[in-house]
Design brief:
Number of helices: 17
Number of strands: 13
Distance between the termini: 80 Å
Strand order of the largest sheet: 1-2-8-7-6-3-5-4
Low-confidence stretches: 1-5, 23-35, 37-75, 226-233
Length: 494
């Protein structure tokens, strides 16, 4: 039996339909609704009393603006390259943090229904949106705002889940998006919004249709209304797929989440200059090129670790006892910009912090000609946090030890020694409470997400060039200092 909310939603949808079609002057597409709006409301009231609101107006079965299937597509180069290999792609939907993988094929051979579709009620419609523009900056910013846009524009009864698509073991083939389950009375509002999105933004939109028994699902890839014709299949059958050997997010980490050259990170910020004014200011502070491969005259020791593990206390003590220069990454010159770039999507945020390492390396190169240098955080932190954030799920999803993801950038100064301070989680939380300082979103995530913390720590340990020497930071500050001094004397002959 329909609820009052169904009636309200139907009225809202009809009003939304008139506003959209009036805006585009396309009244002919409202099926046969040429009668006055008030009469439409009367029809809705009668249909609601008969407990068949959705079926009387045929909202529940057919959209008012039907999705045009695959054949007519004209898109950016990135989208076209994706479509050329569409049938070989694997799709992943994360429900409650667990991914369900499925693929598509032209013929159905009796395969079972993928898990993500098994429990879908008959009245629910399913869609997917995958972001695949050729402009990396625009695509990254659009994807970062997409979930908020979907939750705002789609009907209240829509559930939105993270989704991705990729080609197995093909680098840079991963594209991200969202999977939508629409349980609203009408499909009109959802499909009108998706159609407008498809027309204006770098997205691929699919709808999923079941057979009468619900045992077979097909995927229909939409095209923009004004697209040119291409010869392609109009539908594919949806079938389960095995989980890939490597987590799909690892396919796109290099030079998107972790940068391995000055030029790669610089190119991202340079392209942001027109939309992020602060990006220009940052690029003006940067060295003209990375010149960091020569051997330092004095040892360079990097101290790494999560917040509240004692890095600041230790680095200051080492500065005083060794007569060293103390530097921090990112350097003080970037502090005014950090809050701004912390709000940006990963591509831009990671490029900013990567360039901070090159700025610090320039300072290290100057100071290590005169004295030993102690660095509070460096490339290990930048890479470990990025990798742990990009790879969802358990620690086992991280790239295997020895993966190129953990390699040191070839143009970045390599320290003489890297010390990783570790601490029991409860002791670290206690220290954080006592300290009471503001934290970034990733640092806040460390506090309440044990899994994320474990991934960060494991990524630290797997980075090479040089690898980390792990030191327990639980004892007193003086004991930790003595232990680290012994390590420095043994590794750096100080």
């Amino acid at each position: 039996m329909p609820h009052l909310s169904d009636f309200v939603e139907a009225v809202t949808t009809l009003n939304y339909a008139f506003s959209i079609l009036s805006k585009h002057n396309r009244e002919s597409q409202i099926l046969k609704f040429r009668f006055p709006f008030r009469f439409c409301l009367v029809v809705l009231l009668l249909s609601f009393s008969l407990q068949r609101t959705a079926d009387v107006i045929t909202f529940n079965r057919e959209p008012l603006l039907k999705a045009q299937p695959y054949p007519n597509i004209s898109m950016a180069r990135r989208a076209m390259s994706v479509l050329r290999h569409w049938s070989s792609r694997v799709f992943s939907v994360e429900v409650d943090g667990a991914p369900d993988y499925f693929s598509i094929q032209e013929a159905h051979r009796g395969e079972e229904v993928p898990k993500v579709f098994r429990e879908v009620p008959k009245s629910v419609r399913c869609y997917s949106l995958l972001v695949c523009g050729s402009d990396r900056i625009r695509t990254a910013k659009f994807y970062a705002q997409l979930k908020e846009t979907l939750l705002r524009e789609l009907p209240v009864r829509c559930d939105v889940f993270p989704m991705s698509s990729f080609q197995t073991n093909v680098k840079d083939s991963l594209i991200n998006g969202y999977f939508v389950r629409d349980n609203s009375v009408s499909s009109f509002r959802s499909e009108s919004f998706l159609r407008n999105l498809l027309h204006d933004e770098p997205v691929l939109v699919c709808s999923y249709v079941r057979d009468e028994d619900g045992r077979v699902w097909t995927q229909h890839l939409w095209s923009a209304a004004d697209s040119e014709t291409t010869e392609t299949s109009t539908e594919h059958f949806v079938v389960p797929s095995e989980a890939p050997e490597c987590h799909p997010s690892t396919l796109n980490i290099i030079n998107s989440d972790v940068f391995y050259s000055f030029e790669g990170a610089f190119a991202v910020l340079q392209k942001c200059g027109d939309i992020i004014p602060e990006a220009k200011s940052v690029t003006e502070l940067l060295p003209r090129r990375a010149d960091a491969r020569r051997e330092p005259d004095f040892p360079v020791v990097v101290i790494e670790g999560l917040d509240a593990t004692g890095k600041t206390t230790l680095t200051e003590s080492l500065r005083d006892t060794l007569g060293a220069t103390l530097l921090r990454s990112p350097p003080q010159r970037l502090s005014p910009f950090r809050a701004r770039f912390d709000q940006e999507p990963p591509l831009i945020r990671r490029a900013f912090y990567a360039l901070g390492n090159y700025m610090t390396a320039e300072q290290v190169g100057q100071e290590c000609m005169k004295t030993p240098v102690i660095v509070d955080r460096f490339w290990h932190s930048t890479a470990a946090y990025a990798i742990a954030t990009a790879v969802s799920g358990p620690v086992s999803n991280l790239p295997a030890e020895g993966s190129e993801v953990y390699r040191w950038p070839s143009d970045l100064l390599q320290p003489s020694l890297v010390v990783l301070l570790t601490l029991h989680p409860e002791e670290r939380k206690r220290r954080l409470r006592d300290r009471g300082q503001g934290k970034t979103l990733e640092e806040q995530e460390l506090d309440h997400n044990q899994l994320f913390r474990l991934k960060v720590e494991e990524a630290y340990r797997r980075i090479s060039g040089p690898p980390c020497v792990v030191v327990d930071a639980s004892p007193s500050a003086d004991q930790v200092l003595q232990q680290v001094q012994l390590v420095i004397r043994g590794k750096c002959r100080l």
